[in-house]
Amino acid sequence: MKLRETFLQAVVLVQAEDDAREAWLAMNRKNAPWVAVFEGVRPEGGRLVGLLDGRDLEGALAPEVFVTAGDLAAGERPSRRAIRLSPDGELEEALAQLGLAGADAGFVEGRGRPPGVLVR
């Protein structure tokens, strides 16, 4: 089965220099459980720094804390998820790739459909 035929969770794309609280707000506006943090000129063409979920963003919600999405995405767990998967790839191969990287999720590029996150 191809990745484009599987259920993918919604994801918001942000830049590494964006405020983590803004990333959290964008995630909630779209009702997406994931934030993909990219470094580069535009999110889809840049380097994937990591994938953040709500637990990763919890510490940045205090008003006295300023942290960028890139700082959080560089952490151990989010950076292990920095795996770009092709929507044309096979599901079994993608799951094996996530397992080898020790990641619980990976970013599936959007070609002809919105990008998403594959969760193991």
Automatic annotation (TrEMBL):
It comes from the Bacteria. This is CBS domain-containing protein. It comes from Tectimicrobiota bacterium.
